[in-house]
Amino acid sequence: WDTATNELMETLAGSESETISVAFSPGNSKILASGGADGTIQLWKLADNEDAITRRTPMSAHEAPVNAVTFNNDGKILASASDDTTVKLWRVNDSKPISLEEIAIMEHGEDGEVKCVTFSNDGKRVASGGMSFGIKLWNVDTRTEIVFGNGQIGMVTGLAFHPDGSAIASCGEDGVVRLWSFADSQEPQLLTRHEGKTTRLS
């Protein structure tokens, strides 16, 4: 969509299954990723003149629906979250042809399906949440895990880091937005309650 004219610019025909998530790369605004109900991830690249689009053949990325895809700030790493209980990290090759290389698998395991994933602004941490009712933090370089934020009541559906990385906000099925500080272990600050579940944060 053209945000200036509200006109439809292009319809991107992906796989035959439902497309669940999309994200533009902050490092290269011509790169778009999408995640599908069939467990695939697709990469799209706008041409320099923006009148043509190239698409990488859908790649089988997960064994269940891909609920979220997101890039780190330089666009070199893509994270994906899936109902197969994993978060995966992918190195993005934006040359021709555009492609993804799997570099890490981070397991939620028995904690269940993963519904959301986000990078900190510095790209050093990944946060994920889902059916486990908690938030998991991962060190991108070492892949080490820190269980954090077990006070969410119900499934976690959205996460967003504070710009300076000092806190993270979460939302979920209980309709409450919570703000968690990394500086202490106190209970989170409850920011607002929605009528019904809250699905996304930004």
Which structural traits does this protein have?
202 residues; mainly beta; five-stranded antiparallel sheet; four-stranded antiparallel sheet
Can I get a quick summary?
The protein has no helices and 17 strands. The protein has strands at 19-24, 31-36, 40-46, 53-55, 59-60, 66-71, 77-82, 86-93, 99-107, 114-119, 125-130, 135-139, 145-148, 156-161, 167-172, 176-181, 189-193. The two termini are 20 Å apart.
Explain how this protein is built.
The protein has 202 residues and is an all-beta fold. It is built from no helices and 17 strands. Strands 1, 2, 3, 4 and 5 form a five-stranded antiparallel beta sheet that branches. A four-stranded antiparallel beta sheet has the order 6-7-8-9, with no helix packed on it. The chain has a four-stranded antiparallel beta sheet with strand order 10-11-12-13, with no helix packed on it. The radius of gyration is 17 Å and the shape is globular. The mean pLDDT is 80.
H/I helix tally: 0
Cα gyration radius (Å): 17 Å
Low-pLDDT residue spans: none
What is the percentage of strand-forming residues? Answer: over 45%
Q: How do the helices and strands follow one another from N- to C-terminus? A: EEEEEEEEEEEEEEEEE
**Helix content percent band:** under 10%
Summarize the biggest pleated sheet: 5 strands, antiparallel
The total strand number stands at 17
Shape summary: globular
Q: Could you report the average pLDDT, rounded to the nearest whole number?
A: 80
- By helix and strand content, what is the structural category? mainly beta
The protein's oligomeric status is: single chain
